[in-house]
Design brief:
- The chain is mostly helical.
- The chain has one domain.
- It is globular, with a radius of gyration of 14 Å.
- The N and C termini lie far apart (42 Å).
């Protein structure tokens, strides 16, 4: 791929690969969230909530906490960028606490 096309290629590539890669640990989930939060070039926009690897991971972990699910929804759906960033921070702090508790 030519260098000039790289940003567009990353932006239009599906967020989740078709090879069935999934998140398997809280550390992996935190890393996924961290990468999205620190994407200063906006090459990895959150995309659809249903196709987010974190959605599948939270379901597999049987997370039903309304606040956590709302933060995740905000990251994908809230039109207010500052609300999305705050939700990302809250989600990362929550995941960090989960990792420390394990």
């Amino acid at each position: 791929m030519p260098a000039a096309a790289l940003a567009e290629g990353i932006r239009t590539r599906p967020f989740r690969g078709g090879d069935g890669r999934r998140l398997h640990s809280w550390i992996g989930a935190l890393a996924c969230q961290w990468m999205a939060m620190h994407d200063s070039l906006s090459l990895r926009l959150p995309g659809e909530l249903a196709s987010c690897p974190l959605t599948e991971f939270l379901e597999a972990q049987e997370i039903h906490d309304v606040q956590v699910l709302h933060w995740h929804w905000q990251i994908h759906q809230d039109p207010d960028e500052s609300a999305r960033l705050q939700a990302m921070q809250q989600m990362m702090q929550w995941m960090t606490r989960r990792i420390r508790e394990e």
